Every structure is written in structure tokens, then in C-alpha cells.
């Protein structure tokens, strides 16, 4: 478990992995082009949401409140999918100027959640699924659907795996009816299934 870019780098350096799943298809596609993974398949979608600490001391009620002076915002670094999606979302909303309020850029979504939950930031951008998982510590503020970037998850089997049957079974389980039900229960949107090759 790590940021998608870090995991892709580990795979390139020979990490003994069997399956790679990411929130940014760019990583799986590059690894496929480099001959390191089998053809990636989609399995879920997500959305970006704004989170605030449960107590919400800054009184943030809308993404547009981030324009206020003194707001402490935490986001993902540009090298991780949530960071890239956040910047796209802010551009779509005409709010790129709020990046001036960023006090920290985290290497993964969990870092953003932790900073907001601990009150080290007034708000942060994460995936809906991460906000749901931390619902006892943070409150989610919805983002307009029209501004949402396309957050698509892909999964691929590494060509170097020594556990091909198990890796294939795992991918099958993720894409099975039971796997999809668990993804949906966790807040993911389901991708149309295409045959894995």
C-alpha cells in the first residue's frame, strides 16, 4: 500500500509483487507499455470530496469557502493520483487560486485524511471512499458532479509473478459479483466489466 507512483517505481525496480491496482490508469498503462504487467482492466470509479474535521472550526460549508484568507488546506502531491485529480477539480471549478492556501502536500490519501482528522488542516481533498472510512473523524462536503475528474481504478497482473494462478484468481475475485458488492459498500462506483485478457 502506497501512492501509485511509488508502487509503479517499486515494480520497475523488481519488487516481488503479483498484482498492481491503482487509482490512476496512467501508471498501469505505462507499466503495460513497458512490458511489466499484463493488460490492465478497470474495476471501479471514485469521486473526489472535500473533508473537514468533525468540529469544523473554520466553518467551511462549501468548496468555495476555501477562497477565504487563512484557510489551511492539505492536498495530495502532484505525483499521486489524488493530487492530480484535486488540481483538475479546482481548475474545473475556477478555484486554482486556493492552492495558495495549501500548507501540506501528502504522498498519499491517508496522509491527507490524517492531517485533517488531527486538526492540522482546515480541509483536504480525498476520495469519497476515504472520507467514508474516516466518517467518525471527518465530515465530507460534496463537490459538484460537473467538476469531477474521471477517477478510474485499474488492476493488472505483473508479468514477473511466480503466483500466476493466485494473481488471476485475486483479479477475478475483485471483479466478481461479491467483490463488486464490497466495492459498492465501500463507496466505489462500479465500472462496466470488460473481459480481462
Q: Main beta sheet: strand number and arrangement?
A: 5 strands, mixed
In helices, the fraction of residues equals 25-40%
Average pLDDT rating: 93
The Rg value, from CA coordinates, equals 18 Å
Total helical segments? 7
Please tally the β strands and state the result.
9
Determine the structural class based on helices, strands and strand pairing: alpha+beta
β-strand percent reads: 15-25%
Q: What order do the SSEs take from the amino end to the carboxyl end, as H and E?
A: HEHEEEHEHEHEEHHE
Low-confidence stretches: none
Shape: elongated
Please report the distance between the alpha carbons of the first and last residues: 25 Å
Q: Order of strands across the widest beta sheet?
A: 5-4-6-3-7
List the helices and strands and how they pair.
Layout (H helix, E strand, L loop, with lengths): L3 H9 L6 E4 L2 H9 L7 E6 L1 E6 L19 E4 L4 H13 L8 E5 L2 H9 L5 E5 H6 L4 E4 L9 E7 L6 H11 L2 H9 L3 E2 L7
Structure description:
This protein has 197 residues and is an alpha+beta fold. The protein is 34% helix and 22% strand. It is built from seven helices and nine strands; from the N terminus they run αβαβββαβαβαββααβ. The strands form two sheets. A five-stranded mixed sheet has the order 5-4-6-3-7, with helices on both faces. It is elongated. The mean pLDDT is 93.
Amino acid at each position: 500500500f502506497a501512492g501509485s507512483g511509488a508502487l509503479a517505481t517499486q515494480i520497475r525496480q523488481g519488487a516481488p509483487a503479483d498484482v498492481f491496482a491503482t487509482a490512476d490508469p496512467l501508471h498501469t498503462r505505462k507499466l503495460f507499455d513497458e512490458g511489466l504487467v499484463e493488460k490492465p482492466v478497470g474495476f471501479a470509479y471514485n469521486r473526489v470530496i472535500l473533508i473537514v474535521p468533525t468540529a469544523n472550526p473554520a466553518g467551511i460549508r462549501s468548496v468555495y469557502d476555501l477562497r477565504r484568507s487563512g484557510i489551511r488546506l492539505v492536498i495530495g502531491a502532484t505525483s499521486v493520483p489524488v493530487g492530480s485529480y484535486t488540481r483538475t477539480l479546482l481548475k474545473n471549478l475556477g478555484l486554482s487560486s486556493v492552492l495558495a492556501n495549501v500548507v501540506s502536500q501528502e504522498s498519499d490519501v491517508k496522509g491527507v485524511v490524517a492531517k485533517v482528522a488531527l486538526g492540522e488542516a482546515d480541509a483536504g481533498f480525498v476520495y469519497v471512499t476515504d472520507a467514508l472510512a474516516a466518517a467518525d473523524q471527518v465530515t465530507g462536503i460534496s463537490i459538484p458532479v460537473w467538476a469531477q475528474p474521471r477517477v478510474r481504478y485499474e488492476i493488472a497482473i505483473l508479468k514477473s509473478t511466480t503466483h500466476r494462478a493466485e494473481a488471476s484468481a485475486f483479479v477475478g475475485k475483485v471483479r466478481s459479483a461479491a467483490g463488486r458488492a464490497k466495492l459498492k459498500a465501500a463507496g466505489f462506483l462500479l465500472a462496466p466489466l470488460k473481459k480481462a485478457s
